[in-house]
Amino acid sequence: MEKISSKEHRRIIYYHPVLLRENATTASGIRPLKMLNAFRKAGYTVDLVVGYSLDRKRAFAKIRRNVRQGVRYMFVYGESSTMPSELTDPKHLPLRPLVDYRFLSFCRRHNIPVGIFYRDIYWRFKEYKSKVSWFKRHMALLFYRFDLIQYRLFIKTLFLPSVKMADLIPGTLRGGFCQPLPPAHNEPVLREKSFSESLDLFYVGGVGNYYRLHKLIEVIREETECNLSICTREKEWADAKHEFGDGTLPPNIKIIHTFGSGLEPFFRRSRLAVLFIEPVPYWTITVPYKLFEYLGWGLPVIGSRGTLAGDIIEDLDIGWCIEYSEEALRNLIRELLEHPERIDAKRANILAIRRNHTWSARVSEVEKALSAR
Fold first, then answer.
1. Cα angle at 356 between 26 and 291, to 5 degrees?
2. What is the 3-state secondary structure (H, E, C) of the chain?
3. Which CA distances in Å does 156 have to 107, 315, 344?
């Protein structure tokens, strides 16, 4: 058997317990691809352990052979699923419940440091109980906890959207185990903008449930000098539009259904982005993916006090964090209409820091965490 060279010093393993989909439209599908591409762009040779349980089992067998033949891996970087890793097969049954355990324990035995981005902890919120049947919920909870046991035993670093999320992880966490690794952006090429006298706002994301935009829409109804474009999935809008009166919106509020490159014209012509959502407990520990995409496009953001996104906006000085009330939003919009130079000042702040929040920058953070002694 031909021996694989051990001189590939920048070789890593990339782990993800579901399929990678190039046409993903949600953050849980987009982010794993962004990180994978960023590692490749950084010059790494990447071996994949991804897909359904049988795919991962076969990929792990190849990793074992590589190690026996002298291949040296710098580290493993993984992106978790919103589901337990044991239940990611199409019918969500634990067909091979130990495949990830064996892979992670192998890495530990062979001194390959592992870092995994733990995406979500929705299962710790009471709303999860009301939306999942008793049997499915208890099976999922068993495996969510099993995932955490594996992480405590075998991985070096648990990356989180925010360190605040660590407070909801059950059990004792060792010092330095959790580190933040929020979303990022692609650093799109920006052009000089020319704006009309109206104020164009842009929102991308969900509508309904945790994404309550009611006060935003009510204020913009009245502020005819503002235009608001809301990009959301068609089904979500169909399910939620009855919550906004009869579902009829004024001419200055547009609902659009696009994704990927279809969003670019809206990013380019908008003056502001909005994350003015109701500050329910879930938003105190979760970072919206689009916040950093707004940052990449140079858009100052209006956020809600009492949310983690609002805290980030305030800390980075990239927009305005205001009380979640119609009065506060109305006052801010009228202030910005009268003093547009204040928007320009926030944009200047964004342009000064946006390179620190690219996907390439996140790869550097992973390198630092997993290479440290």
1. 35
2. CCCCCCCCCCEEEEEECCCCCCCCCCHHHHHHHHHHHHHHHCCCEEEEEECCHHHHHHHHHHHHHHHHCCCCCCCEEEECCCCCHHHCCCCCCCCCCCHHHHHHHHHHHCCCCEEEECCCCHHHCHHHHHHCCHHHHHHHHHHHHHHHHHHHHHCCEEEECCHHHHHHCCCCCCCCCEEECCCCECCCCCCCCCCCCCEEEEEECCCECCECCHHHHHHHHHCCCEEEEEECCHHHHHHHHHHCCCCCCCCCEEEECCCHHHHHHHHHHCCEEEECCCCCHHHHCCCCHHHHHHHHCCCCEEEECCCHHHHHHHHHCCEEEECCCHHHHHHHHHHHHHCCHHHHHHHHHHHHHHHHHEHHHHHHHHHHHHHCC
3. 11, 28, 42
pLDDT score of 359: 98
What's the alpha-carbon Rg for the chain, to the nearest Å? Answer: 22
CA neighbor of 121 nearest in space, from 144, 99, 137: 144
pLDDT score, position 6: 43
Question: Bridge-partner residues for 78, per DSSP?
Answer: 15, 116
Q: Give the other-Cβ count within 10 Å of 171's Cβ.
A: 8
Q: What is the mean pLDDT of each run of 10 residues along the chain (373 residues)?
A: 53 97 87 97 97 98 97 97 95 96 98 96 86 90 96 97 91 87 94 75 89 92 94 91 80 93 92 94 90 96 96 97 97 96 96 96 97 77
pTM listed for this prediction: 0.92
pLDDT value of residue 195:
65
8 Å CB contact between 252 and 227: yes
Short-list 290, 371, 307, 362, CA closest to 79? 362
What are the tokens at 167?
A: 């407070």
Token pair 């021996």 in the structure block, residue: 3
Which residue has tokens 């940052």? 295
Place of tokens 């000085």: 317
